[in-house]
């Protein structure tokens, strides 16, 4: 899952980025409203964390323009203001939720998970064929066999499970599992796909991770 953080306070941005990366999210951070709007319009994010008080263009203006441009990623507003008027203004512009500084990271994480879950139908447990992944507990199972995953393996598997039967290019995978500083010339995507295959395909007759030669990978039941 890929998150955009638009926050000009470097310590706050670093705090959010570090915490989200420890939770296996890919995180892009920008420091002003103009660049934040550009990133949000040019990239496919699963959620946006947007501060209101930003240089060059404030968060409410950015949010209004993003909604007009058809950006559908849920937006969590951050602000040091705690008035009812400010909260109402942000929600009326199109924010999905609102968090006042200072905040505990656990609260931000919980709110973020709720926002992303709203876009999912039915149960939050991700399932495909006999493979399941519970984002709440981070437990993966193939049939009745529990699968132990590293942080990046979990992030990669979650992205595949959210896009079943869709051919995902190596670039798309890298953008959602790593961040904008990812080196597209490396073979790390292929390496981690092989790690996943050894854990969820190797010992099972039905293979579900398939290579699309020259393009990328697809989660498909054959």
Protein traits:
single chain; 222 residues; alpha/beta; Arc Repressor Mutant, subunit A; 2 domains; 4-stranded antiparallel sheet; elongated
CATH superfamily of the largest domain: Response regulator
Helix amount: 40-55%
Radius of gyration: 18 Å
Beta-strand residue fraction:
15-25%
User: Count the helices. How many?
Assistant: 8
Number of strands: 12
CATH architecture of the largest domain: 3-Layer(aba) Sandwich
Low-confidence stretches: none
Give a summary of the structure in a few sentences.
It is built from 8 helices and 12 strands.
Folded structure, characterized:
This protein is an alpha/beta fold and 222 residues long. It folds into two domains: 2-118, Rossmann fold (3-Layer(aba) Sandwich); 126-219, Winged helix-like DNA-binding domain superfamily/Winged helix DNA-binding domain (Arc Repressor Mutant, subunit A), CATH 1.10.10.10. Helix content is 40%, strand content 22%. It is built from eight helices and twelve strands. The protein has helices at residues 10-22, 33-42, 59-68, 84-93, 105-118, 151-161, 170-177, 188-200, and strands spanning 2-6, 26-30, 47-51, 75-79, 97-100, 126-128, 131-134, 139-142, 145-147, 168-169, 209-212, 216-219. A five-stranded parallel β-sheet has the order 2-1-3-4-5, with helices on both faces. It has a four-stranded antiparallel β-sheet with strand order 6-7-8-9, with helices on one face. A three-stranded antiparallel β-sheet has the order 10-12-11. Helix 2 runs parallel beside helix 3. The two termini are 26 Å apart. The mean pLDDT is 87.
């Amino acid at each position: 899952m890929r998150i955009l953080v638009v926050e000009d306070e470097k310590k706050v941005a670093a705090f959010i980025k570090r915490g989200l990366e420890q939770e296996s999210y890919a995180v892009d951070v920008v420091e002003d409203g103009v660049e934040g709007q550009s990133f949000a319009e040019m990239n496919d994010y699963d959620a946006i964390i947007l501060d209101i008080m930003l240089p060059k263009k404030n968060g409410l203006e950015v949010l209004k323009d993003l909604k007009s441009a058809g950006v559908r990623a849920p937006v969590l507003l951050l602000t040091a203001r705690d008035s009812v008027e400010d909260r109402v203004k942000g929600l009326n512009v199109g924010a999905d939720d609102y968090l006042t500084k200072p905040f505990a990271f656990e609260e931000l994480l919980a709110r973020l998970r709720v926002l992303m879950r709203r876009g999912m139908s039915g149960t939050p447990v991700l399932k495909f064929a006999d493979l399941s992944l519970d984002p709440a507990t981070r437990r993966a199972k193939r049939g009745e066999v529990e699968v132990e995953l590293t942080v990046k393996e979990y992030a990669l598997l979650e992205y595949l499970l959210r896009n079943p039967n869709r051919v995902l290019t190596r670039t798309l995978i890298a953008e959602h599992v790593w961040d904008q500083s990812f080196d597209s010339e490396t073979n790390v995507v292929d390496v981690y796909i092989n790690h996943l295959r050894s854990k969820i395909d190797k010992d099972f007759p039905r293979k579900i991770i398939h290579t699309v030669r020259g393009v990328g990978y697809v989660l498909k039941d054959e």
